[in-house]
Amino acid sequence: MAKTKTTYFCRNCGAESPKWIGRCPSCAEWNTYVEEVVTGKTGRPATKRKSSAPPVLVSEIKAEEQPRVNTHSTELNRVLGGGIVPGSVILIGGEPGIGKSTLALQIALQMPQITTLYISGEESSSQIKLRADRLGPGKGKCYILCETNLEAVFEQLEKVGPGLAIVDSIQTMQSDLLDSPAGSVSQIKECAAALLRYAKETGTPVALIGHITKEGGLAGPKVLEHIVDVVLQFEGDHNHLYRVLRASKNRFGSTSDLGLYEMNESGLAEVKNPSEILISRHEDDMSGIAISAMVDGHRPFLIEMQALVSTAAYGTPQRSSTGFDLRRLSMLLAVLEKRAGFRLSAKDVFLNVAGGLRVTDPAADLAVIAAILSSDTDLPVRQDICLAGEVGLSGEIRPVSRLDQRITEAAKMGFKKIIISSAGKVSPAGRNDIDIVRAGKVEQVFRMLFRRK
Ligand code: TYD
Ligand code: MG
User: Fold this and answer.
1) For residue 164, is it within any domain?
2) Which one of 82, 159, 343, 430 has the lowest number of neighbouring Cβ atoms within 10 Å?
3) Would residue 61 count as lying in a domain?
4) Atom of ligand 1 at shortest distance to CA of 100?
């Protein structure tokens, strides 16, 4: 019987120390060390050292483009860069209840060409069955295994020999080699490393579901993110239907593509044309609404910014924003006040991005300003106008990336006019489907939007 001993692990980077220390010497984070019981290294079976292959010249290596496994989900294929690479390990992170298990099960059910094994340490098989029934009839052969013991999982993996294994979640897995409880740093490291070895040795892709912490990072050590090939983040607002899937790391593709899903009663539906649902068409013009032509990743879409400006009822005016950076909003308000002479300092300002999405594209600035001014003056912005431009500290409108793509999307959606920066470069191909209006300063935009006919 191996003697139990305790060690301290850094929750952030997974570094190990025999004593508690306040600041991790490896990642420089404070107060991240936690005590864990571990069985001494002697408890591990001695692994046979394999004879290593000799080094090979790059020029002599045959580049084999491995065929990717089609997930039969356009959005997921896009985010992964064309499907799952055999032998890769994918980590899917997201807040509880956001739909990670639903996404994983849906993928497992809809792959007709391979056998999938869905390993759950969180739900019983009947719970999973209920969920699978909601998701509709599956096309593929999907086995369910409710197990938290890693060794038992490997036994079944060997028996089933699936084409894709899904582990829901890595925090519930526990290896017999360690005494520490499931979810502890050492268990997560050990289980993930064992599953990674399995993936690389057998060429079976493995998807790991990971919880995220209060701060928004993936729970468990950062090493988890380092060892896996792909890290996907599943995000969204619980009160809204839309979910965004994006890659924060991808060894086999770009990280700038995103997938958009809508959660409904029969699972996650792919959103093929985001612009159509993210803007609402109203019968009459309403003030406080402006449309931004944004790009997230490689994908252009139009999104509605809604603002409400009212006289502050109490002494200190309130500023609140959903889906848009509050500091950026304060900056834009200061620019409007100082550079364009709008008196907003005694007003409450509320900003909302439609659909519960988060906007980080700087091109949204112009639409935010338009929505605020529209609400403040109670003059509606015409529904066939959209905007794309970044606002600088001196009130200048700066050009943004991928302007052509934004303009094409706006024209496709039937917009008649797009306001962009006067310095923005648009390819010379004549466009007569949309009117491109250029502005250099925020006060010009105001005149363009609200000039009486
Ligand atoms: P779940 O996949 O269990 O989240 P996670 O694994 O990330 O914790 O998703 C749970 C939520 O999804 C739950 O609030 C209900 C909702 N949901 C639907 O709206 N429709 C469905 O068809 C399913 C299966 C779930
Ligand atoms: Mg779950």
Assistant:
1) yes
2) 430
3) no
4) 7
* Sheet containing 33-39, strands listed edge to edge, beginning at the edge strand earlier in sequence: 16-17, 4-10, 33-39
Give me the domain span that covers residue 173. 69-272
Kindly report, residue by residue over 30-52, the tens digit of the pLDDT: 888 888 777 655 445 555 566 67
Shared domain for 219 and 317, answered yes or no, is: no
CA distance 124 to 129: 9
The count of domains in the chain is: 3
For the segment 157-171, what is each residue's pLDDT rounded down to a tens digit?
999 999 999 999 899
Spell out the residues 6+ positions from residue 36 whose beta carbon is closer than 8 angstroms to its own: 6, 7, 8, 9, 180, 184, 185, 186
Q: Which residues surround ligand 2, an ion (CB under 5 A)?
A: 101
Ligand 1 pocket test target in 91, 100, 102 with most atoms within 8 Å of CB = 102
Statement to judge: residues 442 and 323 lie in one domain:
yes
Q: For residues 173 and 133, is the Cβ–Cβ distance under 8 A?
A: no
Q: Tell whether 288 and 379 lie within a shared domain.
A: yes
28 and 110 in a single domain? The answer is no
Task: Identify which ligand lies nearest to the alpha carbon of 129.
Answer: 1
CA of 10 to the centre of ligand 2 (A): 25
